[in-house]
Amino acid sequence: MQRLAGVAILSFVLALLALLPSTSWGQTYIQASPPTNQVPIVTPNGLVYYPQKIGTPIVKVGWLPAYAFTGVLVSVTDGASSSDCSIGGGLELLLCQYNGSTWQAVAGGGVGSNVEVNTTLLSSSSTINFENSAATNGLTLSFTNPSGGNVQLGFSGQLSNAGLANSSATVNDTTCTLGASCFAPVTDATFVADTSYTVGLLGCPTSTGKVANCASGVNPPVVGVLLAKSGSNAHFAVSGSAAVTFQATTPVTFGDFICVDATNAGMVVDSGATPCTTKQIGVVVTTAATATTQTVFVQMGKN
């Protein structure tokens, strides 16, 4: 009778062991001395086992065992906050550690909910706000969320010249700012410059086929206002904006006629509103204070 009873008890124990839940984590143990640093898992039927797994177990808050070795780490997938391991049902992914009596959240131990930007962890794990930029060089960067959590970057405003690598263009030695009015001179650089060549004076051809400062006279053969040379070639304005030289400091007024100075070689005079009695060089387009050099609109061939 006793032998039959022993056999029945052994059969019951073996059947009970066969009912233990299988796990993909590895081998299951029921013993008084569990493996080192293994987290005991309590099954729905009250049994305690110690899964063998390399790495940190991942569970929900409700699955955290009441007992574990001090220092054991478990990743929780449903924390209500990033600093608490006792309340589940949330969306926080955090790392919990058993301190000998309770499970405590490990500071900075989130496992994926919080986002890092340039290696800095964001303060919120549930909301990320993209802020529009301040206007820079006329443009403002803005963010919108049109649908489905898609963040869209847009621009508004108008790019200013300050935002351009090159905000001006130089035409025939005249620098013109983009978007502004500019009078670029029409030039000719097919003549070789003579040794007597001064920027701002009137240029005339020589007997050797070069261009030099004009000599004095009422009607010299002016080809244009001399500009900076292009290599060894003469560079002169025959139309457009150019700086001319006066013998004396002279104020100019919009609309004044600018004429050849018959006395001072290569220079000009302001004839005011009276048409030129010598060769006309151009007209004043901007009123300016007294100076020996003034910018005029060159109009060669108007006489």
Write up what this structure looks like:
The protein has 303 residues and is mainly beta. It folds into three domains: 22-128, no CATH class; 130-164, no CATH class; 169-299, Virus Head Decoration Protein, Chain: A (Beta Barrel), CATH 2.40.300. The chain contains one helix and 22 strands. The strands form six sheets. Strands 13, 14, 15, 16, 17, 18, 19, 20, 21 and 22 form a ten-stranded mixed beta sheet that branches. Strand 21 (280-283) and strand 22 form a beta hairpin. The radius of gyration is 46 Å and the shape is rod-shaped.
Keywords:
single chain, mainly beta, Virus Head Decoration Protein, Chain: A, ten-stranded mixed β-sheet, four-stranded mixed β-sheet, 1 helix
- Describe the main β-sheet briefly: 10 strands, mixed
Mean pLDDT: 75
Beta strands, count: 22
What is the class of the largest domain in the CATH system?
Mainly Beta
CATH topology of the largest domain: Virus Head Decoration Protein, Chain: A
**For the CA atoms, what is the radius of gyration?**
46 Å
H and E string:
HEEEEEEEEEEEEEEEEEEEEEE
Distance between the termini: 145 Å
Short description:
This protein is mainly beta.
